């Protein structure tokens, strides 16, 4: 819980990620980066689970 709070504080106060028009492109780039990392992580876990399932057959 405190790690999530720390990440939010860092994003808002250090990286100045807010809803102002000057920061909109930075927020969009951050969201794109988070989505890419999420796709890589979920895809990797899915592939490893599928490989584990095939090894048990």
Automatic annotation (TrEMBL):
GO terms for molecular function: proton transmembrane transporter activity. InterPro entries: Cyt_c_oxidase_su4_prok, Cytochrome_c_oxidase_bac_sub4. Keywords: Cell membrane, Membrane, Transmembrane, Transmembrane helix. It is found in: Cell membrane. GO terms for cellular component: plasma membrane. The keyword Cell membrane applies. Signal peptide: none annotated. Its main location: membrane. Pfam families: COX4_pro. It is a multi-pass membrane protein. Belongs to the cytochrome c oxidase bacterial subunit 4 family. This is Cytochrome o ubiquinol oxidase protein cyoD.
